[in-house]
Automatic annotation (TrEMBL):
One of its GO terms (molecular function) is kinase activity. The gene is etk. It comes from Ruegeria arenilitoris. Its EC number is 2.7.10.-. This is Tyrosine-protein kinase etk. It is a multi-pass membrane protein. Residues 16-104 form the Polysaccharide chain length determinant N-terminal domain. InterPro entries: AAA_dom, Bact_polysacc_biosynth/exp, LPS_length_determ_N, P-loop_NTPase, Wzc-like_C. The chain crosses the membrane at residues 28-46, 332-351. Keywords: ATP-binding, Cell inner membrane, Cell membrane, Kinase, Membrane, Nucleotide-binding, Transferase, Transmembrane, Transmembrane helix, Tyrosine-protein kinase.
Length: 613
């Protein structure tokens, strides 16, 4: 059971593949023209695009820089961080920087880079021209950074290989020159700031020293023995007070000694405060002196660096003149255009198939009508009206193994052997679907295979079946179907195993009485005694009602649909109407099939194609 399911699944997959292949074949011309047009247009357009060259160079930014800090008054080392690097990258991409690069390369005066507008001599025109050059320069190089590295890559692109190499080298050269100028300017600014600070500190130091000298002079602080004498005086006063107390001197003398001691101690305390103030002032002067000397040292250091300044940013690789262009990839783009056109063509094919409501496959027939398709009739070449049908009949008589003969033989075998139908009514839903041609082919095929066949042409409006065998209508003998006798004409002039006779109705069948039905039934019995098979060609089922008056005459009905022409709804309506009228509709015949655009799969999994013959 599982193997059977696998076989069915494999069959479905194969059918899906074939359906896709058929879809492509039916729309092959559209897809081919679309691909050819897209490839040709792309190739022409790509031929107008000049070759593009590119080259790249690399530089490494300086990690640190020494500058004078206004806030601290000291030389400080500044280290590049992420935001600083991003700032430098933005500077490299700025318009001002691009103008410097253009100026260094002389692109403002190069007409091959950007051509000036004729008669553009005003200042505004010059600004417009410079802006155009700067924009093109910005578009001609790119700046990139790998991760958190300080290495910056510059890629130049141009239609000129020389300019493609010159751009990144010039970008780096301009950046290094700008950076050096900026470092020199910052260094000179730092030197000026240090000189100004040296002057300020010198004045502050001089003023502090002058104030210190005046302080010492005013308070006699240069006498180093003065404090010693005050301490000795305090000790002497203390000794006198102690002795006076021991000797019980009068109270007024004791008070006098105490006042003298207090006075001496106050003098000593005042002197001590003055000396402490002196020490503080001396420390302030020393601090100013140190700051002054440090500033002078920093100034000397910066002044010596002016002649020894090195480039902070260095170029580690130079751009070389490219030999081969990197773009455009004409072959690749042309191939991609062709592939894109194929995809678009496939989409268009799907849309066309989705919008196509005509009958093209047996699956559609089964889905719309529930009927099986009994055969396929290949498209016949037509040079003029009915000439194609006559030629097809001649080929059928000459070759019994042709695709047309095999198709007709299969349909007749199905009807006679398996369905036991000897009177087959052929009709279609709409005009111009080839029912008369199919009737003629089936009748001729039966005669070729040795059957005595009769073709009854009831289509009094077109008489297509009759004209297939007797083009001159003056030679046609007409018969009244409801009369007691009908006129038989030989349809074939070529000798065959069997025979083919023709009855051409003179007027449409219109009687609905029981007598008319009995006449048709009697005619059928009479003709079946003489013929092995009878083919009846009737008007279209959806246009004329004559077909529905011949139900007594027919054993079965074959419904003809024209491949790619018959609307699905028309086929569905015709089949439904015939079945509801009591006809035994055996199936359909798909006529006028284009063998180059269609293949079919039978229920047994057989794949066939007219191209194999």
């Amino acid at each position: 059971m599982q193997s059977g399911d696998d076989a069915i699944a494999s069959q479905h997959e194969t059918n899906d593949f074939i359906n896709i292949w058929l879809l492509l074949r039916r729309n092959l011309l559209v897809i081919f023209l679309l691909v050819v047009g897209a490839v040709s247009a792309t190739a022409f357009y790509m031929s107008t695009i000049p070759d593009q060259y590119r080259s790249d160079a690399q530089m490494v930014l300086a990690l640190t820089e020494t500058r004078f800090s206004e806030s601290t008054g000291q030389l400080e080392t500044y280290e590049l961080n992420r935001s600083s690097v991003e700032t430098e990258l933005a500077r490299l991409r700025s318009r001002d920087f691009a103008e410097q690069v253009a100026d260094r390369l002389g692109l403002f005066d190069d007409p091959s880079f950007v051509r000036r507008a004729p008669g553009a001599d005003s200042e505004a025109d010059e600004e417009i021209h410079r802006a155009a050059v700067a924009d093109k320069v910005l578009a001609s190089y790119s700046v990139s950074r790998a991760g958190e590295s300080l290495a910056i890559s510059i890629e130049g692109r141009s239609t000129s290989p020389v300019l493609a190499a010159a751009l990144p080298n010039t970008v780096i050269a301009v950046y290094i020159a700008n950076e050096r100028d900026a470092r020199v300017n910052r260094l000179m600014t730092s030197i000026d700031n240090l000189k100004r600070r040296v002057g300020i500190l010198g004045e502050e130091l001089t003023q502090a020293e002058s104030n210190l000298a005046e302080f010492i002079r005013e308070d006699n602080l240069d006498d180093e023995q003065f404090v010693t004498r005050l301490r000795a005086e305090v000790e002497r006063r203390k000794a006198q007070l102690r002795i006076g107390i021991e000797r019980n001197l009068p109270e007024d003398e004791i008070l006098a000694l105490q006042e003298q001691l207090i006075t001496s101690e106050q003098e000593l305390e005042a002197r001590t405060r003055l000396e402490l103030s002196l020490l503080r002032r001396e420390r302030e002067v020393e601090l100013l002196r140190t700051r002054y000397q440090t500033t002078i040292d920093n100034l000397t250091l910066l002044e010596t660096r002016i002649g020894q300044l090195e480039d902070g940013t260095v170029q580690v690789s130079k751009a070389r003149i490219p030999v081969e262009p990197y773009a455009p990839s004409r072959s690749l783009i042309t191939v991609l255009a062709g592939l894109f056109a194929m995809i678009v063509g496939f989409i268009i094919a799907l849309v066309r198939e989705g919008l196509d409501r005509t009958v093209r496959s047996e699956n559609q027939i089964i889905r719309m009508t529930g009927l099986s398709n009994l055969g396929y009739i290949a498209r016949q070449r037509r040079s003029k009206m009915f000439a194609g049908e006559n030629k097809a009949i001649e080929n059928l008589l000459q070759s019994q193994k042709s695709p047309l003969a095999e198709a007709a033989r299969g349909i007749l075998t199905n009807c006679i052997k398996f369905q036991h139908s000897k009177v087959i009514l052929i009709t279609s839903g709409l005009p111009n679907e080839g029912k008369s041609f199919v009737s003629s082919v089936l009748a001729t095929s039966a005669a070729v295979d040795g059957l005595n066949a009769l073709l009854i042409d009831l289509d009094t409006h077109r008489r297509g079946a009759t004209k297939t065998f007797i083009p001159d209508m003056d030679e046609v003998q007409l018969s009244e179907i409801y009369s007691d006798s009908v006129t038989l004409q030989h349809a074939l002039t070529t000798e065959t195993k069997g025979s083919l006779d023709l009855i051409t109705a003179a007027s449409p069948t219109h009687e609905l009485s029981d007598a008319a039905s009995n006449k048709l039934k009697q005619l059928k019995e009479t003709l079946l005694d003489q013929y092995d098979i009878i083919i009846v060609d009737t008007p279209p089922a959806l246009v004329m009602d004559e077909v529905y008056r011949n139900d007594i005459l027919a054993d079965a009905v074959l419904l003809v649909a024209r491949w790619g022409k018959t609307p699905q709804h028309a086929l569905q309506a015709a089949a439904k109407r015939l079945q509801s009228s009591g006809f035994n509709v055996l199936g359909t015949i798909l006529n006028d099939v284009d063998p180059k655009k269609y293949r079919w799969t039978t229920y047994e999994g057989y794949y066939g194609t007219y191209d194999d013959y």
